[in-house]
Amino acid sequence: MTPQLATKYVFTITAHIGDVTIAGEIGHGVRRIIPITGGEVRGDITGKVCPFGADFQIIRPNELIELEAKYAFETDDGAVVYVENRGLRFGPIELLQQLKRGEPVDPKLIYFRTVPKFETGSEKYRWLMEHLFIGSAARHADRVVIDVHQVL
User: Which of 22, 24, 39, 101 has its Cα between 20 and 30 A from that of 121?
Assistant: First the structure.
């Protein structure tokens, strides 16, 4: 019998972001780089997002956005966790353009999912490297909020 897939919410990452740098058209989309300036982690793990790292994006001609964020957070008990988070953001073009301008958009109207991968030397948080996770995310003008779910 094939095991059933299930997920469990574990924590939320709120990553504050800085101004967008646009590298331009690279042949298969527009490359954008968005710095991560801090934030917080709340849920089964609590801590702060370190003020470094970035989200490296390619915006396809149809406005589908491929994301690859690399950053770290430090737990309240001192462990450092490196994060690589790949994902997709897509929705109606007019709403995606509103987001690009920093205007508010109802997150329910945008498909924004990620696959975070974690690395840490902390024994307490080693389970982060021993499981798969998915994220459901929302983009706001000054932050990205990611609800992280463990795949059971």
Answer: 39
Distances in whole angstroms, Cα of residue 89 to Cα of each of 4, 9, 34, 74, 120: 27, 20, 15, 26, 27
Q: Is 17 left (phi over 0), alpha (psi -120 to 50) or beta?
A: beta
For the chain, the C-alpha Rg in angstroms (whole number) is 16
Instruction: Name the pTM for this structure.
Output: 0.93
Local structure of residue 2 (DSSP, 8 states): P
- Residue ranges with strand state E in the chain: 7-17, 21-25, 30-43, 47-49, 54-59, 65-75, 80-90, 111-119, 133-139, 143-151
Query: Which residue positions in the chain have pLDDT lower than 50?
Result: none
- How far apart are alpha carbons 76 and 89 in whole angstroms? 30
**Cα–Cα distance for residue pair 36/88, rounded to 1 Å:** 18
